[in-house]
Specification:
This protein is mostly helical. The protein contains ten helices and two strands. It starts with a helix and ends with a helix.
């Protein structure tokens, strides 16, 4: 079944969100704050680990770095593009629309929950690599593993940030579904090197999301999303 991995992942997010809301009433406020900090720190190290694993290499016993210029240009150019398009504001406006549509105007955390959860579950390396694998070969094992992780993450988010978290399933479905379709159409254009570069930049964005969760909003991560386009443009340019 085409896009089965994305469907499984979307279902896991919805289920995790519903479970988190159910648990919310039984979790004291002080525990919710600690849980959010724990999620933030975990997300920081997931992102940092993803960057370091691809940036640092040992060659003949010497520690070397690679891909630093790609990361720098991706973040700078991507952030500039995102700021001009004001993607962060568009994402928040979508959250506000959903908030009104489902009559949850009194939920002060709805938009924060929607935006935070969307960024965490959409821009990680597993979302990109898993969707590409699903489109190219029909192998949805990576997205199934991601679904399990997202279920846990979304459950915790929903228990602290509320109903808005559940609606992150919508952009997740559209985002991963689009990548899967693109991979199926593009075929072998999605080289191993390009997938690695996308994961590399995506991990840097995950790190920024983790900082926002743990310490309050420091980065407009939504405006950084076009950074993921730069490796694609670079791959096309170098292949010509």
């Amino acid at each position: 079944m085409f896009c089965l991995g994305t469907l499984i992942n979307t279902g896991a997010v919805i289920a995790g969100g519903l479970l988190g809301i159910t648990l919310k009433k039984g979790i004291p406020e002080r525990c919710r704050e600690v849980l959010m900090q724990a999620c933030g720190v975990s997300t920081i190290f997931i992102g940092a680990g993803g960057v370091m694993s691809k940036m640092l290499t040992f060659t003949d016993g010497t520690l070397e770095t690679q891909g630093t210029m790609l990361l720098i240009f991706s973040m700078i150019i991507g952030s500039l593009m995102g700021s001009l398009l004001d993607i962060e504001q568009r994402l928040e406006e979508l959250g506000e629309f959903l908030k009104r549509k489902f009559h949850t105007e009194n939920d002060s955390l709805f938009v924060e929950g929607f935006v935070t959860s969307t960024l965490v579950i959409c821009i990680g390396a597993m979302a990109i690599v898993g969707s590409i694998e699903d489109g190219l070969t029909g192998n949805y094992s990576t997205l199934t593993a991601k679904a399990i992780l997202d279920f846990v993450i979304v459950t915790i988010f929903a228990s602290t940030l509320g109903k808005g978290v559940i609606f992150s399933a919508l952009p997740l479905f559209l985002y991963q579904g689009a990548i899967t379709c693109l991979a199926a159409i593009a075929g072998n254009f999605m080289s191993t090197e390009l997938i690695c570069q996308l994961s590399y930049v995506g991990s840097a964005l995950i790190f920024c999301v983790g900082v926002n969760i743990a310490f309050g909003k420091k980065f407009a991560v939504g405006n950084m999303l076009p950074a993921l386009l730069i490796p694609i443009v670079y791959s096309i340019a170098t292949s010509l």
